[in-house]
Structures are given as structure tokens and as C-alpha cells.
Design goal:
The chain has one domain: NADH Oxidase, CATH 3.40.109. It is built from nine helices and four strands. The protein has a four-stranded antiparallel β-sheet, with helices on both faces. Helix 1 packs across helix 6, helix 2 packs across helix 6 and helix 4 packs antiparallel against helix 5. The protein is globular. Belongs to the nitroreductase family. One of its GO terms (molecular function) is oxidoreductase activity. This is Nitroreductase domain-containing protein.
């Protein structure tokens, strides 16, 4: 692919993956890192990216994915899960990471830390999951684009049982909660996907979507 535009034009929501063709570890790492590099509010990244390659582990998720086989019969399944422990300790950890990564003196990010803490603690606490989910979706966009640029198919969904995913993947004890999943792999020859591959994308005309003021 020569551009994200070309890659996203090529992409469609694949319903049948060739289970014999596996995405390389290098490509899986690159897709996850694209999500890691996407911008988020303050750079806090209140989520984690989980990849599942093991077919047996994916098979256990079939019922929690309402029997949709393309989410278990694929190369890898990505699970994006938001943090449920968005608190002072998390913000402090991030401030120290800034100092360490950029070679700043200890405490030099304290003013930024206080500003973040003031914002987060002043928000209604029941609004934090929705806020964190927005950040996770920013990462998801980068992951979709990176996969498409590499010629890797994907299918994204919210149609699953998040609490069941949390339980089966042991996410609760990691202070994580599933919000969206993305199956990746290589498209198989299926009547539905052959039709989708040749179909013209249906989108709002660009003149309507892009409002110039």
C-alpha cells in the first residue's frame, strides 16, 4: 500500500479469515505499537492492548462473542481494555515516566502531574470509563490503519459480552475492562467477502463529510 487512503480503500470488514495463514509476530507487534503511538489525552493512555494468538483461548470466547466465528477463527484477536484504576497513583506513575524517559530531574513534571490530577479528580468518577474508552478508540484507529497498510485484514466489534471477556481473560485482577475487539488475519475466499471486496464503499460524499468554513 502506498498510503493510508489506499489501504483504507482496500480494507473491508473481513468475515472469513484463512486460519492457515498467520500474521507474523513482527506485524502483530507493529500493529500494537501503532496503537501505542497514537495520541491520547495528556498522553495518559488509560488502556492496554492485548493480543491473543492461541486458538484454544480464542475458542473459549466464542459464546461471549455471540457465536461470531470470525472473532475466534483468525490469526490473532486484539482486545482493547480500559484501565479501571484511573487515580492519583496512575498519574504519578506517568509523571515519573516522563521524567525518566526525557532525562528530566525528579519532580520536574510535578506541575503537570498536579494539573492532570486536578482534571481527573474533578470529573464525575462515573464518567471516567467513557473518557478512557474514547482514548482506546484513538489507538484502535491507528491499529486499523497499520494493519491495512501491511495488507492485513481486520474486523472490529463491540458486539460481545465485555464482562465475560474480562472474566475469561483474567482482566479484572489487572484492573482492566474490555471495550472493543479486533480480529486480524488474511482474507479467505468466501462468497460474502468476495462480494464485499468488489463492492464500492458506501460513504457520505466527501463534500458533505468535510465541512469547510
Amino acid at each position: 500500500m502506498h498510503s493510508i487512503h489506499d489501504a483504507l480503500t482496500w480494507r473491508f470488514a473481513t468475515h472469513a479469515f484463512d486460519t492457515a495463514k498467520k500474521v507474523s509476530d513482527t506485524d502483530i507487534d507493529a500493529i500494537a505499537e501503532a496503537g501505542n503511538l497514537m495520541p491520547t489525552a495528556y498522553g495518559l493512555q488509560p488502556f492496554r492492548i492485548i493480543s491473543i494468538a492461541d486458538d484454544a483461548k480464542k475458542a473459549k470466547l466464542l459464546e461471549a462473542t455471540y457465536g461470531q466465528t470470525h472473532y475466534v477463527e483468525n490469526s490473532h484477536l486484539f482486545v482493547l481494555a480500559i484501565r479501571t484504576d484511573i487515580d492519583a497513583a496512575m498519574i504519578s506513575e506517568y509523571a515519573r515516566r516522563i521524567e525518566t524517559t526525557r532525562g528530566f530531574s525528579e519532580g520536574s513534571a510535578s506541575a503537570f502531574e498536579d494539573m492532570m490530577l486536578g482534571d481527573i479528580t474533578n470529573r464525575p468518577q462515573d464518567s471516567l470509563p467513557a473518557w478512557a474508552t474514547k482514548q482506546a478508540y484513538l489507538a484502535l484507529g491507528g491499529m486499523i490503519a497499520e494493519a491495512s497498510l501491511r495488507g492485513i485484514d481486520s474486523h472490529v466489534a463491540e458486539g460481545f459480552m465485555p464482562d465475560a471477556y474480562d472474566e475469561m481473560l483474567g482482566l479484572r485482577e489487572k484492573n482492566l475492562h474490555t471495550v472493543v475487539i479486533m480480529a486480524v488475519g488474511y482474507r479467505a475466499a468466501s462468497p460474502l467477502d468476495e462480494q464485499r471486496k468488489s463492492a464500492v464503499k458506501v460513504r457520505v460524499p466527501k463534500e458533505e463529510m468535510h465541512i469547510k468554513l
